[in-house]
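To the structural biology subgroup,

Please find below the input and predicted structure for Phosducin domain-containing protein, which we are adding to the shared reference set this quarter. The sequence is reproduced verbatim from the submission form. If anyone notices a discrepancy with their own records, reply to this email rather than editing the shared folder directly, so we keep one authoritative version.
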Amino acid sequence: MDQESLPPQKKELLRQMSSPHKPNDARGSLNRKMSVQEYELIKEDMQDEQCLKRYRKSCMQEMHERLSFGPRFEGVHDLADGEAFLEVIEKEHRNTVVVVHIYKVEVKGCAALNDCLDCLAGEYPTAKFCRISVEASGAGERFSDDVLPALLVYKAGELLGNFLAITQSFNEEFFATDVEAFLNEYGLLPEKDVAMGDDADVE
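Predicted structure (tokenized):
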């Protein structure tokens, strides 16, 4: 390291650390208290390391979004009306798979499918899982009770899958793994998320 380019405090600290001590001085030097100046320098270095970790995490997240899978989501998003439904299809990131469940509380299988999507949203944070009641969608005449629950899958504004009365494809009792296998059969789910490095260390 070029010592000339170091700040004066660090130069002085290096000089003290590299000065030879006589044997009878050694114990005294080990027992001496750390100066405020030394403490500040060490604290500064530790803060720098934390900043570096946070910066690295932020860069990895940004790279993840920009280069590969698009943004990340948490949980299932409730859509308030038909306008919100159109917006999520048209304006979402081009790499994001959008799965929309159209349901009616009274229709058998809708509540179970909602529970399954809650599980899958945790497994696939790069896909956006949404739900909207048929009444809120404004498309009640197109989605009568006998075609519910319906599952629509979009990417880059394009409809990739349109599954009406989807629960007919399952046993009477079905789970998230059944819905996952069904969607994977059509190649509609992204790859499962992989934890990114040492994020757990970062406060």
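Summary notes: Residues 3-69 form one domain. The first strand starts at residue 77 and ends at 78.

Regards,
Lab coordination
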